[in-house]
Task: structure prediction
Amino acid sequence: MTDPRFAEIESHRPYLLRYALSQLRDGPLAEEAVQEALVSALESVGSFNGKSTLRTWLTSILRFKVIDLQRRAVAERAHLQPVDAAETEDEAWLDALFDETGHWRSPPQAWSDPEAAFEQRRFWEVFERCLDRLPQAGGRIFFQREIVGEETEAICKAERITPSNCWVILHRARLALRSCLEKSWFASEHSLGR
Amino acid sequence: MAGSVNCREASRLLSLACDRDLEAGEQQALQYHLGRCIMCRNFESQLKYLRRAAERFRAGGA
Result:
């Protein structure tokens, strides 16, 4: 344990777990994939050449582990968590965000210099906390769509939901994430006085 | 007027536009609304921001 990159590799574990969970939809299976990927990464860290970021390199290792485990999971389909029907019914939660005339209850504010937040480690902690607060399928599907960059069609197929259910879930996740970032970062003291 | 939308519907269309091309009627109703609503224009730029943040997050964050 002398390579300083060991600790750095370990620091990407939460991201990798989120990635694995978005693909595998199964906690223990995702943990297993990440564990295997980290072990492989530690063994081959000497071959990491810094051409991509460390996270990108780790993700590429994890992707193969995920595919392996996905093959195994196909045999035990019942194991996978299906999307909860309640998450695709949009009326109730939309009523909480918009009044009876369809206006914003708390209108989105203009965020000042949001790109500057990217440079701050604490912003990414807030970002991860906001991702954690999304409803289960919402967080998973948002991750696949926006962070992995998967097309909605492929996501629907994997999640076995209709495109319109998928769009409802994404709409809800984006509204929730926006609102969480505004409350926890852009309208709070974190972003002021810098 | 026909084809006009409120903020609730505009937010739905803005999110939808991240996932598929809008139809002409949807696009027109949305643009009409955005021309008059600063709040939904804020939401629109925040959706684009979320996408840039997601890309950054994929590469490793800060």
